[in-house]
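Hi P.,

Sorry for the delay on this. The queue was packed all week, but I finally got your sequence through. Input first:
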Amino acid sequence: MRTLSPQELLDHLDRNTYWPHGCGLTAQQAYEHALAVREMRIARGERPVGFKVGFTNRTIWDRYGVYAPIWGTVYDSTLRACDTQGELDIAGCSEPRLEPEAAFRIAATPPARATLDELFACVEWVAPAFEVVQSHMRGWKFDVADTVADGGLHGRLLVGARKPVREIARSAHEFDDVLARSTVDLMQGDEVKDRGRGANVLDGPLHALMHFLEALRDCLGAPDLQPGDIVTTGTWTDAWPVASGQRWRAQFEGPLGALAVDFK
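Then the structure:
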């Protein structure tokens, strides 16, 4: 199989076209290509604002044939913020699907080999979020390297009302327990399409953030977490196909509250 170059990956992204085949790369090579695409996007004026972590939800691994978490970059061109309701333009997304998640804002770069408590001390706030994921492999048929080369499948990110983490809990253990026990109903209109819980994402969103930090620092050439970065930590449910004109809502039971999105 011929490998796809970083320029080809970016061209397919820009044109919203399918790859003719898989990326033809190993997982390590796929991260190298993804970082090259990141530099190309920076060179043309896009600004990285954080990261997405995907496939942290073990309950959907068998469904997609991907059995380990991945990560990709979030840009100012793909991030939107709101309070409890927002809008996302998905016209340029390939086979878009929706994921309800918990997103964090980093207040300080975590120390080397950070413990969960040290990581918690570096988080400013948590918010409900919707990530729109996409696939340039037709029918969402891919392997793990394809998902990495495809920008971690990231398309759009909507971040809702921010909750200072120290208003939720006083320690990492308490905070992780609160989010792990929280649940979410994912709704299209008034119909509940799926239900999930925080524990689905590597036992809790803070654990998912810790896994990502370790993976990021193990990736040669990757940037470190910086103050101000937004990190979304993976879907609590399955990823659901969406289309322009639809309204979806995530009703979180727990500190995250509710978030609605209209697609155009």
